[in-house]
Amino acid sequence: TVYDCTIIELDKHHSERKGNISVIENDKTIPFEVKRVYYLYDIPGGEERGAHAHKKLQQLIIAASGSFDVILNDGNVKRRFTLNHPYQGLYVKPGIWRDLGEFSSGAVCLVLASEVYDEADYIRDYNDFLNYKNR
Ligand code: TYD
Fold first, then answer.
1. ipTM (interface predicted TM)
2. Given the CA of residue 40, which atom of ligand 1 is nearest to it?
3. What is the count of structural domains for the chain?
4. Which of 4, 69, 100, 112 is most buried, by the most CB atoms less than 10 A from its CB?
5. For the segment 113-126, what is each residue's pLDDT rounded down to a tens digit?
6. CB neighbours of 21 closer than 8 A, spacing ≥ 6?
């Protein structure tokens, strides 16, 4: 359910003069091994992304810069998360519909994924998603 999707606080190394660094390591910080990294950027104001679910894929979504909202939906319950800190990641389990929006200008949405890209893992139709959940 959406209650299994939580904000993971990432390692943050702070230097008064030189800024911050955050680190994610396989099987330590997050409950999966990273096979793919991608990022969304140059998203025009008012645009929405996502609008799909995955059958198998686990993800960690990070606002590497700027801010945006992620709405998670398990078919029963919706939860909205505002991501606006580079030291936090939203862990998204398989079988969750996600909508992304409210992107600030300059926002970078960094995604760590447990699998390589596979279009067959996507559910892109909302009714298909509901059928999949109630199968
Ligand atoms: P999609 O996942 O639908 O984007 P979003 O959820 O951010 O709105 O992907 C958009 C396009 O990019 C789609 O045509 C497939 C392609 N794509 C890849 O080729 N490889 C990838 O790893 C990803 C995430 C997308």
1. 0.95
2. 7
3. 1
4. 112
5. 999 999 999 999 99
6. 12, 13
